[in-house]
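sry for the spam today, last one i promise. struct tokens for design, 511 residues
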């Protein structure tokens, strides 16, 4: 499998092989077309197909090409937006519904693994959260109180399973972990066995919603459907949800521990941004996985430095013999802290979406599958209103909404303000890229350090922000809404659906 970054994730390398049955199909009508072959798309497709819907999954590249291939796969009922914040932003009842839905997901994943005999190393475990200063202690007590109020089984803990100093800790029972790609492959196989079709290397180019049926124009022909689901992590095109979701980059690293003592549970500190730790057993080998150093996409000058900083953090606490993998990936944070699942605003009501999962996509992907099937089968479920993308919450998330869009406006303005005329390609270090301004046009220049230079327009095709160079993943990333492009300007991640204009490729002497 390939992923949307240059660094190999653990899951990419230590993975079973799976190839979808079909390489192409004749144009035909489906009940539901699901766009996106990550955990959300495949969980949704499996749920619908096993209930009798005839489904087609479209995936631009290969299954788990997106963030599912770069996740760290903690399966939590304890969420990044803690229940005290959900209670403040919404109310206790909403928080209780979300907690129950999260607990149901753990049961659902376990039953999916059992029913379809999925060999993904699923294990039950606990989660530990620890505070290291008085402010964090105060916050930890609030988080614990709220967990208890909403019915998540949590308590104070005297110990944590890692050698890190702390003041106070809590433990949450009934969490899980697995190999995310092997899990998705298992669900994909079950989906195909139930009669579903997956087309890899098949990008949805356009959806025409004007008729009774939705027409999907793809790289492999045109299809029709009653419902279309965007499980693309962020929907393509320009939509209200792009104003309400902020893209973030997070970093992960896999190490071998000299002690041979690999913690079985999920562990989190309370730094801002926090660090997270866990172990996965694959083919008899223990892999210690650490993550963190999150920042808004495009807001870190030297993303390589985030790997160095993460390694330093791990080495401070653990005796490491080697580091085998280091990768980064992108997630989207919603402005009020909970995802948007349901009808895509300003579209035909048969067009559905699931986005804004933050760092809890393992859990929220399955909540999305549940909500989407209830909408399609017209069944009642409190979660439909709670996660509705059209929910009106003037207070909840307003501050984040304003901050995010203020940042977007600043990025748009920077086009005019901060770039100065610069034609000095020599200033670009080998294997790096830089945005320069030539004849008033911002361009992205990448030099391979040998003889080749690639030049693309630096104007994001989504909403015209200026892209930034991501040193770690060797990509052009848009700080506004998270669109990402390869060195040659090819779309790696939405919401952009057009490549950057490719201006020039030449050997250095001829530039
Ligand atoms: C470093 C990191 C660590 C994380 N750790 C955790 C964790 O421990 N626990 C947790 O719960 N969550 C975690 N998350 C979040 C979680 O990984 C994501 O929320 C989840 O993987 C999103 O899955 P998805 O299927 O919605 O999106 P993706 O996996 O991104 O899948 C979307 C797919 O859509 C495809 N696509 C896009 N556009 C089109 C198109 N036009 N046509 C066809 N296909 C298209 C893409 O190629 C992609 O494969 C983490 C995130 C990061 C970045």
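last one done:
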């Amino acid at each position: 499998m390939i992923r949307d970054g240059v660094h190999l994730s653990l899951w990419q390398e230590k993975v079973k092989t799976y190839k979808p049955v079909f390489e192409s199909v004749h144009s035909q009508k489906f009940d539901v077309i699901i766009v996106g072959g990550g955990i959300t798309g495949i969980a949704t497709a499996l749920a619908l197909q096993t209930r009798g819907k005839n489904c087609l999954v479209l995936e631009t590249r290969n299954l788990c090409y997106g963030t599912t291939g770069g996740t760290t796969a903690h399966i939590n009922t304890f969420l990044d937006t803690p229940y005290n914040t959900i209670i403040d932003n919404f109310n206790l009842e909403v928080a209780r519904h979300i907690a129950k839905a999260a607990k149901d997901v753990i049961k659902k994943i376990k039953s999916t693994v059992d029913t379809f005999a999925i060999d993904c190393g699923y294990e039950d475990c606990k989660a530990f959260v620890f505070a290291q200063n008085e402010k964090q202690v105060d916050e930890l007590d609030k988080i614990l109180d709220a967990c208890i109020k909403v019915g998540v089984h949590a308590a104070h803990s005297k110990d944590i399973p890692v050698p890190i100093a702390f003041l106070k800790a809590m433990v949450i029972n009934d969490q899980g972990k697995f190999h995310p790609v092997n899990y998705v492959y298992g669900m994909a196989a079950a989906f195909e066995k139930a009669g579903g079709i997956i087309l890899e290397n098949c990008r949805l180019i356009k959806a025409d919603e004007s008729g009774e049926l939705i027409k999907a124009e793809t790289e492999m022909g045109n299809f029709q459907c009653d419902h279309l689901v965007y499980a693309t992590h962020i929907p393509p095109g320009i939509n209200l949800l792009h104003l309400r979701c902020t893209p973030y980059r997070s970093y992960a690293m896999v190490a071998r521990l000299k002690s041979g003592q690999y913690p079985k549970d999920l562990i989190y500190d309370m730094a801002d941004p926090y660090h997270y730790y866990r172990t996965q057993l694959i083919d008899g080998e223990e892999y210690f996985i650490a993550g963190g150093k999150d920042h808004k996409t495009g807001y870190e000058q030297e993303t390589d430095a985030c790997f160095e900083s993460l390694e330093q953090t791990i080495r401070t606490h653990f005796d490491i013999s080697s580091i085998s993998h280091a990768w980064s990936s992108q997630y989207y944070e919603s402005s009020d802290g909970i995802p948007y699942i349901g009808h895509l605003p300003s579209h035909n009501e048969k067009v559905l979406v699931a986005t804004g999962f933050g760092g809890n996509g393992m859990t929220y992907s399955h909540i999305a599958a549940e909500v989407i099937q209830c909408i399609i089968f017209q069944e009642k479920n409190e979660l439909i209103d709670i996660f509705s993308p059209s929910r009106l919450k003037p207070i909840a998330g307003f501050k984040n909404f304003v901050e995010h869009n203020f940042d977007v406006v600043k990025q748009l303005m920077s086009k005019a303000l901060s770039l100065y005329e610069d034609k000095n390609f020599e200033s670009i270090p080998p294997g790096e890229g830089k945005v320069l301004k030539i004849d008033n046009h911002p361009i992205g220049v990448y030099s391979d350090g040998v003889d080749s230079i690639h030049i693309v327009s630096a104007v994001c095709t989504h909403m015209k922000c200026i892209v930034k160079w991501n040193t770690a993943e060797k990509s052009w990333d848009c700080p506004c809404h998270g669109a990402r492009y390869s060195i040659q300007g090819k779309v790696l991640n939405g919401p952009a659906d057009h490549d950057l204009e490719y201006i020039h490729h030449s050997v250095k002497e001829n530039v």
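The mean pLDDT is 91. ok im logging off now
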